[in-house]
Amino acid sequence: MASVPTQIALLTRAPGGADSTCDPDLPTAPWQFDAVPGQPLPAPTYGAGASRQDPVPADAPVQQQIPAQYRLLPADELDRRIRTARQTLGSRVTILGHAYQRDEIVQYADFVGDSFQLAQQSQQHPEAEFVVFCGVHFMAETADLLTTDDQPVILPNLAAGCSMADMADIDAVQACWEQLEAVYGTEPDADGRVPVIPVTYMNSAANLKGFCGEHGGIVCTSSNAREVLEWAFERGQRVLFFPDQHLGRNTAKAMGVDVADMPLWDPRKPRGGNSEESLRDARVVLWRGWCSVHQRFTVDQIAQARAKNPDVRVIVHPECPMEVVDAADEAGSTRYIQLAIDAAQPGEAFAVGTEINMVRRLADTRPDLTIECLDPVVCPCSTMYRIHPAYLAWVLESLVEGRVVNQVSVDPVVAGHARTAVERMLAVGA
Ligand code: 13P
Ligand code: SF4
């Protein structure tokens, strides 16, 4: 099966095919969104793909346009130069790739996995002088927390952020915390459990991880959200979960928490839009955030997949809305989905509700199965999609020339507490 960019190029060239993609800009190169020296900054955008309509914070990292030679190189020449640079650097560099990256990038990764696995991997290569992280900004920040002080972490395109991570910022979380303290106080109950434990999804800025570390909280990923919530409920009467409402709701619901006891915190409203009473009764306070990739999946798509094949197994990621998770046969993290496909019997059919690059790759690795994306419209994660081979060639060749470009470093003021919260999560495991 063709890679996602190739598939998009084919679709958009076919008459009427453009309707099969979510964004007319998908076939164009990601540097159209980069800053050009001497020209006004481009309008902030996550780039083509699922997050295109999401508001971008004014201070989101901007990528300066890379040298023209990289933008002009044909795919086969980029491939040759990436391989040459990779070989020259040898064990001096480790390349990590998230499972949602395009094939054109994943092929160069030393390790491909979900955000939990990549956090573990970034800790396990002290021999590498540099870590090149082909994922998104919060993952590179986490890698910086876990690598040694003299190992720069490089993100090939600094504008590869995450629209969900940007839905919670430190000022809004701090304001929420103060309002919750006004309702709950700060005293533990008779069992020694504090009023509220902050839990941040890995998909958040380092200063939010720092907030959790400083306030007795923890980080989770989609592969250990349940174990992390159990950890939090042992220590607190309730949880403040940010930024993904869906992962928080789906996980807590599966643990038996009543949905009525999970008020939604809208950071734009006083007390998050809640009464004191509903906050007092809360078990989990859910931040109003979402992933624009996983929010696309619908109950209707599940009905259509079943109408096409009544035996189809529907598996969705827990970042999908609750109705979709409830209607699916199974819900699980990136790793869960990978393991389910690995263990499938020949001939089984799957409709998978997660990022299109991963679904396409799963289909390629198991031609004996029928694997389709639940969403018939091709729509990649906008920000993962901004990591194009041209940027990888540029960062690797810069390293060969002795220059570190696009380093992601966490402010030392927040790094200590952020590391504490991440290490608590790693200790809980997955
Ligand atoms: P995981 O890597 O934890 O499955 O998260 C999915 C995701 O959306 C990454 O940004
Ligand atoms: Fe963020 Fe969703 Fe993309 Fe993951 S898939 S990086 S949560 S926008």
UniProtKB/TrEMBL annotation:
In terms of InterPro entries, this protein maps to: NadA, NadA_sf, Quinolinate_synth_A_type3
Q: What Pfam families does this protein's entry cite?
A: NadA (PF02445)
Q: Which GO cellular component term is one of those annotated?
A: cytosol
Residues binding [4Fe-4S] cluster, per UniProt: 162, 291, 381
Enzyme class, UniProt record, top EC level: transferase
Q: Where is this region: Disordered?
A: 35-60
Major location, coarse class? cytoplasm
According to the UniProt entry, its GO molecular function terms are: 4 iron, 4 sulfur cluster binding; metal ion binding; quinolinate synthetase A activity
Please state the pathway this protein functions in, per its UniProt record.
Cofactor biosynthesis; NAD(+) biosynthesis; quinolinate from iminoaspartate: step 1/1
Q: Which domain of life is it from?
A: Bacteria
Give yes or no: UniProt keyword Cytoplasm. Answer: yes
One GO term (biological process): 'de novo' NAD+ biosynthetic process from L-aspartate
What does the Swiss-Prot or TrEMBL cofactor note state? Binds 1 [4Fe-4S] cluster per subunit.
What are its E.C. numbers?
Answer: 2.5.1.72
Q: What keywords are annotated for this sequence in UniProt?
A: 4Fe-4S, Cytoplasm, Iron, Iron-sulfur, Metal-binding, Pyridine nucleotide biosynthesis, Transferase
Q: Which reaction does it catalyse?
A: iminosuccinate + dihydroxyacetone phosphate = quinolinate + phosphate + 2 H2O + H(+)
Where does this one sit in the cell?
Cytoplasm
For activity, the cofactor(s) needed are: [4Fe-4S] cluster
| Positions of iminosuccinate binding | 98, 115, 201-203, 222, 317-319, 334
Whether Iron-sulfur counts among this entry's keywords is yes
Under HAMAP family, the record lists:
NadA_type3 (MF_00569)
Write out the similarity annotation.
Belongs to the quinolinate synthase family. Type 3 subfamily.
PANTHER family on file: QUINOLINATE SYNTHASE, CHLOROPLASTIC (PTHR30573:SF0), QUINOLINATE SYNTHETASE A (PTHR30573)
Its biological purpose: Catalyzes the condensation of iminoaspartate with dihydroxyacetone phosphate to form quinolinate.
Which protein, by its recorded name, is this? Quinolinate synthase
What taxonomic ancestry is recorded? Bacteria, Bacillati, Actinomycetota, Actinomycetes, Kineosporiales
- Which gene underlies this protein? nadA
